[in-house]
Amino acid sequence: LQQCALTCHQRLNQLLEGIKNLPNIKPAFSGPHFHEVVLQLEKHQVSDVFQQLRQHGIQAGFDCSHFYPDLGQSFLLCTTETKTTDDIDFLLTQLHTILT
């Protein structure tokens, strides 16, 4: 169980490091995290980004925009032990293509 939790947390840290290099997206909160993060889009609609990600076989998360409008265009993303570092890199590559 400890290894599972560490893997989840490491994958999220990998994701957050990659997000720093992407335009028009940022974490909504700066506090501690475990394996989930809310990301805010600056120039795109979550529904459009999700649609484009699905075309590459990526189910990106939960659209928070309708339930938490004060967060703007935002979505919750979770990393688990089932995702590899290659999976995270693939997601980051697709987000880069969509957001630029």
Strand content: 15-25%
Number of helices: 3
Shape: globular
Order of strands across the main sheet: 1-2-4-3
- Count the E strands: 4
Provide mean pLDDT, rounded: 96
* Largest beta-sheet characterization: 4 strands, antiparallel
Query: What is the C-alpha radius of gyration, as a whole number of Å?
Result: 13 Å
Q: Helical content, roughly?
A: 40-55%
Distance between the termini: 38 Å
Class of secondary structure makeup? alpha+beta
pLDDT < 50 stretches = none
- How would you spell out the order of helices and strands? HEEHEEH
Q: Could you characterize what this model shows?
A:
The structure is a single chain. By secondary structure, this protein is α+β, with helices and mostly antiparallel strands. It is 42% helix and 16% strand. It has three helices and four strands. It has helices at 2-19, 46-54, 85-99; strands spanning 25-27, 36-41, 62-63, 74-78. A hairpin with an 8-residue loop joins strand 1 (25-27) and strand 2. Helix 1 runs parallel beside helix 3 (85-99).
For this entry, give a set of tags:
alpha+beta; globular; 16% strand; 3 helices; four-stranded antiparallel sheet; 100 residues; single chain
SSE blueprint and pairings:
Blueprint: H1 2-19, E1 25-27, E2 36-41, H2 46-54, E3 62-63, E4 74-78, H3 85-99
Antiparallel strand pairs: 1-2, 2-4, 3-4
Helix pairs in contact: 1-3
